[in-house]
Amino acid sequence: MNDERLNINDKEDELRYAKAHGIIKIRPEVIKNIYDNNIDKGNVLSIAQAAGMMAVKNAANLIPMAVNVQILGSKISFVKNYDNIECICEAQSVGSIDIEMEVITGVSLALITIYEMCKNLDQGMVISEIKLIEKLSGIKNNRIEKKGD
């Protein structure tokens, strides 16, 4: 097993942006209780938002071989649907490496927090579709270039 890290010293610092998405399937009556702030453990979405933002900042401590990056800003948002809640995590940094692992970790921990806080109300919850949906890097001619899909 090779445990050497990628040498990033030769890469230039650039503006980096990434966005990830995930879903937690929950019974509609539990979703109503979440949005009515009627869950015994507290305000589910506020706590999940805080957990997700902490995960973005600490991804390198959780993922072996990940490189610590300075996050300039992050945002966790939720979209209420009939039988699920979507989580979107966005982050921005300036550095020499992309930040897709940070936003994927942010979505993951936000959804896991919702699961933990509601597990006594719905044992059938399913977390799914966690994926990177956008990654931008590099400032070229005063515009951000989109790299990859």
Describe this structure as you would to a colleague:
The chain is of the alpha+beta class. It has a single domain, classed as 2-Layer Sandwich (Alpha-Beta Plaits). It has a 5-stranded antiparallel sheet with strand order 2-3-1-4-5, covered by helices on one side. The two termini are 29 Å apart.
At the fourth CATH level, what is the homologous superfamily? Molybdopterin cofactor biosynthesis C (MoaC) domain
Report Rg: 17 Å
Please identify the structural class as seen in this structure.
alpha+beta
Overall shape: it is elongated
Stated plainly, the CATH topology is called Alpha-Beta Plaits
Strand segment count? 5
Could you tell me how far the N terminus lies from the C terminus, measured between alpha carbons in angstroms? 29 Å
The appropriate CATH architecture is: 2-Layer Sandwich
Uncertain spans, ≥5 residues at pLDDT below 50?
Answer: none
Q: What percentage of residues falls in helices of 4 or more residues?
A: 25-40%
